[in-house]
Structure formats: structure tokens, C-alpha cells
Amino acid sequence: MSSGIFACIEASNKISQYEKCSHKSLDSLNLTLESESLFQCARQCSSIDLICKTFSYSSATNECSLGTCVTTKPTNDTNDNSVDIYVSSNVPKCDEVDGFTVMSYGLVNACVWFSNYTTNYDNASKACISKGAILYTVKQIGKLYILQRFKEKYWIGLTYRVNEKLYRWSDGALFPNTSYWKDIFSSGEPNYPGYENCVQYYIMGSQTLNDIICNTLLKYVCEIPCFVEK
Fold first, then answer.
1. Which one, out of 64, 84, 95, 144, has a CA that is 20 to 30 A from the CA of 153?
2. d(Cα 144, Cα 155) in Å, to the nearest integer?
3. How far apart are alpha carbons 52 and 42 in whole angstroms?
4. Could you give the CA distance from residue 102 to residue 113 in angstroms, rounded to a whole number?
5. What angle do CA 196, 202, 205 make, to 5 degrees?
6. CB within 8 A of 79, min separation 6: which ones?
7. What percent of the chain has a predicted confidence (pLDDT) above 90?
8. Where are the annotated coiled coils located (predicted)?
């Protein structure tokens, strides 16, 4: 991140500080709002307690994109303010959080913690939350490649919401209704939504994802979705 403070934004009787990030890649909350200015976009982000850690603003479209995580994607383009990303200055350094470490694949980075014991999905999710983290998401194919270094089955942060009849990541974002399904799931999966409502990293065959009954006992991976590498 750059060292310069972007601004102090007053919202809901509190002050939130944001810094311009030198990496321009946003792990989106799947939430885009209309804003009249960069400052209004910052206020919209800071009004969402604890969830929104990053935002970007397009002056061309007046779109404010809110997110949870910054990943490294260096750019030499410092003149295009419409794609600048700003990050809350109170995010932790990954190596300062007990047991967490940065793992990378190409330009994709994740701050992760691996359990050494098994439990069901609900308990795994609660354990991650107790660490200030969430169950690991695979919103980018590089994050699946990180998992493929390991010969273990793990819970990851994706569930089928029966009432909504759709899949959501552990941060609440919707799973995109695109061809990304076939990139990260095993052939023919997921095949039992409504019964097998939780998702595991599956080590057999192509080492991809598979839906499974939520009471299954598996190891799990936590991630801190917004962090500073160093």
C-alpha cells in the first residue's frame, strides 16, 4: 500500500481512514452503488460496519464498488483515478495474526490458517469467525490452485442456502451464475443442492470442489479476507 492517507471520512459519528492501495484488484462484495463522488463512495463503504474494507470509484460511470479484500495486482498506471482502490488503514498484517500465513499463486494471495483436526461445517465456520476470519473462499481460480498443493479434504466457505435456492460464499456474496462452476467443481457437481448443502475441497480426481452433507467431519481452512502482506 502507499503511505499516503486518502481522507478522513465522517460517517455515523465515527471517523474511518482509507489509504490508496498500490495494487488494483478488488474481491467484491457483489455490491455496486451509484455515488456522486469519491467521498460519497467512501462514506457508503464506512457505513457498513466491519464488512466493507475496500472500495473503488469510477468517475466515468459514477459507480461505487464495495469489497472485502485487496489482492496484489501491480500496475504502473498512476494517472487513471477512476480505477483506484482504497483500503481501510486498520486491516491486519497477515504474519501478525497467530497461525496465519500468506500463500500465493501467481498474482493471487491469501492469508490462511489450516486446521489439524476435523469438525462439521457449522463448527468450522464458527471457529474461523472466532479468529477474525471466514472459511476460505475460491472466488479466483488461483485460490483453488493454492489448495491443490495439499492432499487433504477441507471445508471451504460456500453453502447452498435452501430458503434462497442459491449458493453464497462465507462473506455473504452470491456465487456467480457463470461458467465458473465448471472451472472449480468436479464433473457433475454440485449434484444434491437441498441435501448436500456444504462444499468441500475434494482431493480425488481433478482436485476440485464437491458438495457434501454439512455434518461430515473434515479439516477446514480459514482466511482473513482483508489483510496487508507485509
1. 95
2. 13
3. 10
4. 9
5. 120
6. none
7. 26
8. none
